[in-house]
Amino acid sequence: MKHWILIAALACAAPVWAAPEWTRAVIVKVDPARSRITLKHERIKSIDMDAMTMPFDVAAGVKLARLKKGDKVRFTVAGQGERLLVDALEPAR
Length: 93
Description:
Blueprint lengths: L1 H17 L4 E9 L4 E6 L10 E7 L13 E9 L2 E9 L2
Parallel strand pairs: 3-5
Antiparallel strand pairs: 1-2, 1-4, 2-3, 4-5
């Protein structure tokens, strides 16, 4: 019985662990040639970063071609070594 309770608890908690933290931002600059984007973003809770404007490197699968300065977006960020990498980016809803 205890095993089933543990399994049920882990199954309910798994989506919380797997869910990315989306952060809202406004695009300040897009540099597709360098796979880089500058965002004015709100606080990023997962890495304890206050709201600010800063450049981010962008993961290979993230498309920058249609984005322009002033677009409102939401993104997820991951640490990769000592740098931060935008690993998902989409228009804000």
